[in-house]
Design brief:
The protein has about 400 residues and is of the alpha+beta class. It is built from eleven helices and 18 strands. It folds into three domains: about 1-245, no CATH class; about 250-330, Alpha-Beta Plaits, CATH 3.30.70; about 335-390. The chain has helices at about 15-25, 30-35, 75-80, 85-110, 125-140, 170-175, 190-200, 265-275, 305-315, 365-375, 380-390, and strands at about 1-5, 45-50, 55-65, 145, 150-155, 155-160, 160-165, 185, 205, 210-220, 230-235, 245-260, 280-285, 295-300, 325-330, 335-340, 345-350, 360. Strand 2 and strand 3 (about 55-65) form a beta hairpin. Helix 4 packs across helix 7 (about 190-200), helix 8 runs antiparallel to helix 9 (about 305-315) and helix 10 crosses helix 11 (about 380-390). GO terms for molecular function: lyase activity; nickel cation binding.
C-alpha cells in the first residue's frame, strides 16, 4: 500500500505542505494549471530552494495582485466547482474549506453560510489549500499518517486582533488531534495547516514501517532557532496492516505521595476519579520519611480533564500538592469484539498489534457472570473466550 507520512516537527501550514509535495515529486505546473482555472486575480506559484538552519527545502510563495476581498464559503466553493479540477481534487479542496468554515463558525458563534473568511479567504490561502488538494491527488497515496502536531507558543495578530497561540480556529480544528509539546515562540501551525491535517490524516503516531520512495521538505516563511521544515515521506508500507500502527497522543500525568490517608478514603477517591473520566488510576506502595509506609497515587488524564481530576484528588485526599507532567503515550488501535463460548457470549476489546494480528481481551463482568451461572472456574471462561475468538480469525 502506498502511504505518506507528515513529519510535523515544526508544525504545518499551507505553503509548507505545498513545498513538501513539490519537493517530493509533484509537478508544480500541474498544480498551477488547477489554480489558474479558479478565476483568481493574477496568481502564480513560485518555487525556490532555500535553507533552514542548514537544511535545504522547497519554499512556495504565492505571487498575486493586491486585493481586499473577504469571502464566504459559497464564494470559494463556486470557484472550485467552476474550475477544471478533477472530481477528487474538488471534493478534497471543498472538504478542507468546509472544515475551516465549521471551525470559524464555532469560535465566532455564527454559521458556515454566514462566517467570513479573512486570512484563509485571501488569494494566497486559497492557492495553498486548492494547490494542496491537487498535490495530494497527484501524489496517489492510499493512506496519510502524521506525527503529533506542535502549535507553538506566544501570540499572533489576526483580523480580530491579538490572539494567543494556537489561534481560536486552529485550536478548534485540532480537536481530537494529538499535540506535541514544543515550546517554540511563534505560530508553528496555522489554521490552513490545521484544516489540511483535520481533513486528510487517517492516523497519528510514529513513522510506519515502509520502503521509502521519496522525501520532500517544505519550508515555512519564518525562521526559528530550529529548522522550520515540514517533511513528507512517501513509500510502500511493509506492515501487513498499516492501520495497526500505534497511535500517539498527549496526556497529563498527575502524581502525589500519601502517608496519612485511610485506605477507605483512598478507595473512594479512586472511584470518583474513574467516574470523572480518568484514563487510568494506579497506586504504588512506597516508603516515606521517618520510615512511614505510604502510597503513590498516579492519575492519567486527557488534557481537558486534568483540572477536574486534580480537584478531586485535593478534595478527597490529604494531598498538599500534585506533580504534573505532560507526556506522550502510544496506544494500540482497538475495537469492540465478541466471542461465543459454550456458556454464552463474551464481549471484549480487540487490540490491533503492529504485526497485523489481533488480540482479544474478554470483558471481566461477562466472564464473571458466565462462570457463576455455569459453575465454571473464571479462568476456564477466559480461556474459552480467547480460544473462540482466535478460531474465528
Amino acid at each position: 500500500m502506498r502511504i505518506a507520512y507528515l513529519d510535523c516537527a515544526s508544525g504545518i501550514s499551507g505553503d509548507m505542505t505545498l513545498g513538501a509535495l513539490v519537493d517530493a515529486g509533484v509537478e508544480l505546473p500541474a498544480i498551477q494549471a488547477g489554480i489558474d482555472s479558479l478565476g483568481l486575480p493574477s496568481c502564480r506559484l513560485v518555487a525556490s530552494e532555500v535553507k533552514k538552519r542548514g537544511f535545504r527545502a522547497t519554499q512556495i510563495v504565492v505571487e498575486h495582485e493586491p486585493e481586499h476581498a473577504h469571502r464566504h464559503l459559497h464564494h470559494i466553493t463556486k470557484m472550485i466547482d467552476g474550475s477544471t479540477l478533477t472530481a477528487p481534487q474538488r471534493e478534497l479542496a471543498t472538504a478542507i474549506f468546509t472544515r475551516l468554515a465549521e471551525a470559524e463558525a464555532k469560535v465566532h458563534g455564527s454559521t458556515i453560510e454566514k462566517v467570513h473568511f479573512h486570512e484563509v479567504g485571501a488569494v494566497d490561502s486559497i492557492a495553498d489549500i486548492v494547490g494542496a488538494a491537487i498535490g495530494w491527488d497527484l501524489l496517489q497515496v492510499e493512506k496519510i499518517y502524521a506525527s503529533p502536531i506542535p502549535t507553538g507558543t506566544g501570540f499572533v495578530q489576526i483580523a480580530h486582533g491579538r490572539c494567543s497561540i494556537p489561534a481560536p480556529a486552529t485550536a478548534e480544528l485540532l480537536r481530537g488531534v494529538p499535540l506535541a509539546d514544543f515550546a517554540a515562540e511563534g505560530e508553528l501551525t496555522t489554521p490552513t495547516g490545521a484544516a489540511i491535517v483535520a481533513a486528510l490524516v487517517d492516523r497519528f503516531g510514529p513513522l510506519p514501517a515502509m520502503h521509502i520512495e521519496s522525501i520532500g521538505y517544505g519550508a515555512g516563511q519564518k525562521d526559528f532557532d530550529h529548522p522550520n521544515l515540514l517533511r513528507l515521506v512517501v513509500g510502500e508500507t511493509t506492515s501487513p496492516d498499516p492501520d495497526a500502527v500505534a497511535l500517539c497522543d498527549t496526556i497529563v500525568l498527575l502524581e502525589t505521595n500519601l502517608d496519612d490517608l485511610p485506605a477507605e478514603q483512598l478507595g473512594y477517591c479512586i472511584e470518583r476519579l474513574w467516574e470523572a473520566g480518568a484514563l487510568d488510576v494506579a497506586t504504588t506502595a512506597i516508603g516515606m520519611k521517618k520510615g512511614r509506609p505510604g502510597v503513590q497515587l498516579a492519575v492519567q488524564a486527557a488534557p481537558t480533564d486534568a483540572e477536574a481530576l486534580a480537584r478531586i484528588v485535593f478534595r478527597e485526599t490529604t494531598a498538599l500538592g500534585l506533580r504534573r507532567q505532560v507526556v506522550q503515550r502510544e496506544v494500540l488501535p482497538r475495537e469492540k469484539g465478541t466471542a461465543q463460548t459454550p456458556w454464552g457470549e463474551v464481549r471484549g476489546t480487540v487490540a490491533l498489534l503492529p504485526d497485523g494480528t489481533r488480540r482479544f481481551a474478554p470483558e471481566y463482568e461477562d466472564c464473571k457472570a458466565l462462570a457463576a451461572g455455569a459453575g465454571q472456574p473464571l479462568e476456564a471462561v477466559y480461556l474459552a473466550a480467547r480460544a473462540a475468538f482466535a478460531s474465528d480469525l
